[in-house]
Amino acid sequence: MTKLHYAQIIVDVPTMQTNQPYTYVVPESMIESVRPGMRVDVPFGHRHVMGFVVGLRATTELETNKLRHIKNLLDLTPVLNTELLNLSAYLAQETFAFRISVLQTMLPNALKASYERILKIIDDVDEDVRDRIFKGLDEIVYQPRELNVRDIATLTKLRREHKIEVSVNVTNRSKIKTQLAYQFNGDIAFLEDERQDLRPTAKKQVELLMFIMGHLEEVWVKKTLQEIISVSDAILNQGVEKKWLSKKKVEQLRDPFSMTDIIPTTALTLNEEQQNALNHIVASFDAQQYQPFLLEGITGSGKTEVYLQAAQHVFNQGKTVLFLVPEIALTPQMVRRVKSRFGAQTAVLHSGLSDGERYDEWRRIERGDVKIVVGARSAVFAPLNNIGLIIVDEEHETTYKQTDNPRYNARDVALWRGEYYQIPVVLGSATPSLESRARAQRGVYELLRLTQRAGGAKLPVVDVIDMKATLADGPETNFSEQLKNKLQERLNRGEQSVLMLNRRGFSSFVMCRDCGFVPRDPNCNLAMTLHMDSHTLKCHYCGHEEPIPIICANCGSNRIRYYGTGTEKVEAELATLLPEARVIRMDQDTTRKKGSMDKMLQKFGDHKADILLGTQMIAKGLDFPEVTLVGVLNADTSLGLPDFHASERTFQLLTQVSGRAGRAKKAGEVLVQTFNPQHYAIVYAKKHDYEGFYKQEMAVRHAGNYAPYYYTVQIQASHIMENETAKQMIQIARWLRSRVDDKVIILGPSPKPIAKLRNRYYFQIILKFKHRHEMDVLLTELQNRAQKSKNGLQLMIDREPVSFM
Ligand code: ADP
Ligand code: ZN
């Protein structure tokens, strides 16, 4: 075998200049140990830094006597596999991020610096190793800097032979929970002799011995063992004395999503549409072909059942499944369903996990102990090998996009991994993103549709209430007469209701209370944002600015107001309107504490409350059979978003929240309060007509040169001086304009809706263009220049931003 003497290393120095692999010499003593995906300690400039080995070579064109040497290995086994290393290169380019940042993002926190790592002997090792490296102990803290290269090589080898184990000490030692277990003897002849010697009356001892002989060398947790064969502690202790088995401490993995009340389920008989969808997915898996599917199925059409049965097929062929959901905390019922089908072979990764819990799950996945990983955005980097199917549920959700560096979209990463493994990727939604639906139109994705509710339930009737009428002849209120009456009705019948208040977000806008008119800017046709400091309305795409109108441009009324309200205010009003109703308020304030959301949902599910009042977060994935009324208090807030996605988000939200009503036997009803009852997003949502909405919205996007007809990049910059930000951004815009042809649309610079944040001033430029990568070179150059200049400007580039706030 040729010796791989040169390592390509990405160093932990996140700058543009160092954003490339450096070549280092692998010392002879490390050649057997080093592998791509391991972290190393290398000299860099005048210091030592951490680096990732991304490749190994036998030769190099560089002058070898000038190359520096790897100082030490920081891992005994790779923390990233080849696939993920490749993915990091692609993502760095795609997101205008440094490769080191992407690599770090892929790892659980516990594997990042500062955490202690523990080496534990788990099998026979040489006395010399035990004495010299382990100082006679079973366990030591791994300090690469204190070990010489030869010792590390020895440890790498032992690790590969499973004679030692590496674990991470996340907070302190006592946090690692252990439990008592027994290791059975493996010497069948000895055990046979022992059995001959036993008196037949020693029934319990015989039982234990027989069990051991049936499970030679296995390790059994004491509790489990005593559940299966009811032997007392005394019997077990006698067994230990006689060397039938030996005591052992094993690590008890913390189960982050322990759901004790999970009842196993089996596959349902699919209806024709479900079966058809499943057949296509399975066929693509069997053909070992990359194929993205768009599973467009109305709420309650049984998409989940299709996912689960596709997953089962994949397991049967010995492969694994990656299952992404928008946000685990909001979809506990989805996790429950996966767990009840696949049990302990499910790993759940979500943002509520502590570093230690997350690391435990990560290790189970890496060891191959799980078949399916369910998780939110960052779970897309789960170290699964052998993936056979990737599912992205609610693919239109913006939570798949990371808003910090690196700004990746998990949906795109899923597609990349799917192509790498040549497998099907299923994107599912009742309201697909326009981008995905358009790709299905062009045949890039295969479209699979579920048009009926499974299990026979009916879609709820949606009524739209015109709030202009309510407010015309009454005081300011959040409740129309109709909604009040329907709520009362539910109370009388002992049924439950869900009320959704569209959260305002960061930006606000004005709306005419008499006609629902929202002032839009003449260039971009977007709702303008209220800026109280300058008393103006601004379009922050193109920078257009005008005074706040005193009378409505549409109807001449003078009741043009700032629009928005909070959940607390609504809760108070509800208390006066329906004093006997038991209300649960669910918003960012009340759900901040870990686990509180699950508790609230549990409480509502147990019918210990009549009304669940919440923000958008309640629209997602909840499934309560007793809910027969869903009320949307203010559909207009999302229509007033200063973003070209405003109509799409409104349609999605209304569809999703309507899906919460009448999930089971009892028919459901939905009331939508709005000042704009004629808006097409509301009209199509009322009719449950995604396809109709899609067609009309595509025309609107086409007319406005928006996605999916154009690609969008947002350039954002901030500085502590407002005029400095503006000045720099004007220069950048000018520079860009001088370098592109006039087919590229450049909007701005303009101040962001939240213009000032943490003492910095934010401006943005928006680029729209036709070919996905046509701006890459220019944008990379821009980032390069921004890095080099020392003027205090912070610049970020965001491809396909999901929010323009
Ligand atoms: P979706 O994920 O598309 O919103 P779900 O998977 O939640 O839909 O299905 C809605 C309901 O219909 C669930 O209660 C589910 O158990 C039930 N269901 C799904 N498929 C079938 C089927 N083939 N036969 C009977 N009931 C089904
Ligand atoms: Zn504009």
From TrEMBL:
Molecular function per GO: 3'-5' DNA helicase activity; ATP binding; DNA binding; hydrolase activity; zinc ion binding
Summary of the function given for this chain in its UniProt record: Initiates the restart of stalled replication forks, which reloads the replicative helicase on sites other than the origin of replication. Recognizes and binds to abandoned replication forks and remodels them to uncover a helicase loading site. Promotes assembly of the primosome at these replication forks.
One GO CC term on file: primosome complex
Pfam families named in the record: Helicase_C, PriA_3primeBD, PriA_C, ResIII, Zn_ribbon_PriA
Cofactor: Zn(2+)
Broadest EC class assigned to this enzyme: isomerase
Protein name: Replication restart protein PriA
Taxonomic lineage: Bacteria, Bacillati, Bacillota, Bacilli, Lactobacillales
Signal peptide: none
Catalytic activity from the UniProt record: ATP + H2O = ADP + phosphate + H(+); Couples ATP hydrolysis with the unwinding of duplex DNA by translocating in the 3'-5' direction
Binding site for Zn(2+) 1: C512, C515, C552, C555
Record text on subunit structure and interactions: Component of the replication restart primosome.
UniProt key word NAD: no
Start and end residues of each Helicase ATP-binding domain: 284-450
Helicase C-terminal domain span: 547-701
Keywords: ATP-binding, DNA replication, DNA-binding, Helicase, Hydrolase, Isomerase, Metal-binding, Nucleotide-binding, Primosome, Zinc
GO biological process: DNA recombination; DNA replication initiation; DNA replication, synthesis of primer; double-strand break repair
NCBIfam families linked: priA, PRK05580.1-3
EC number: 5.6.2.4
Name of the gene encoding the protein in the UniProt record: priA
Species of provenance: Leuconostoc inhae
Cofactor-binding details, from the entry: Binds 2 zinc ions per subunit.
